[in-house]
Specification:
By secondary structure, the protein is an alpha+beta fold. It has a single domain, classed as Electron Transport, Fmn-binding Protein, Chain A (Pnp Oxidase, Chain A). It is 33% helix and 34% strand. Strands 1, 2, 3, 4, 5, 6, 7 and 8 form an 8-stranded antiparallel beta sheet that branches. Helix 5 packs antiparallel against helix 6. The two termini are 21 Å apart. Pfam families: Pyridox_ox_2. This is Pyridoxamine 5'-phosphate oxidase family protein.
Amino acid sequence: MRRDEFIFEDKIYIESFLNSIEFGVLAIPDKDCAYAVPISFCFHQNELYFHGAKSGRKYQLLKNEPRVSFNASKPYSYIPSSFLNHTMIPTQFFFSVYIEGKFEVITENQKKKQMLEFLVKKYENQNFILKEGQENGVFTGIIKAQTLSAKAKFGQNLDDEKIKILIKDLKNRGNELDFQTIKWIEKLRV
């Protein structure tokens, strides 16, 4: 990552983030251009679990090329040019995770069922029991993370005086996302 001040290394938070965000984007090499597709997923023990149909472009590409990358991100407050007394260069604050790894198809039914239960539990916390045989209709895959990095961009490059003004601007605008952003700014200023 080019900007060291945005590196985020809290592995516990990164795993929690990955298991709370709704979807991420899987990028698979293709002939002329990477194929990027949104997927639902869960993250467990440095592995990303997901499932899909046993046909289609994603399935065919993954069978031929196991090297993939993945990104999940959450936007926070947009910071307009009117902030910092009209001196702000507009930017978006956000948190993101980037993974590079190798894809593996899981064929063993007990492992497939366990992975699907992790996925269902993430999205349907009250309903995480699968019926016998549900795992048979889909392919399930693991991406074993070989590299994982996280970026938290919340004005760490700004001096304390500018941060005070920025927080005041966010409070004045006052939407829920602005207050979440303020929490991140304060957390990362320590």
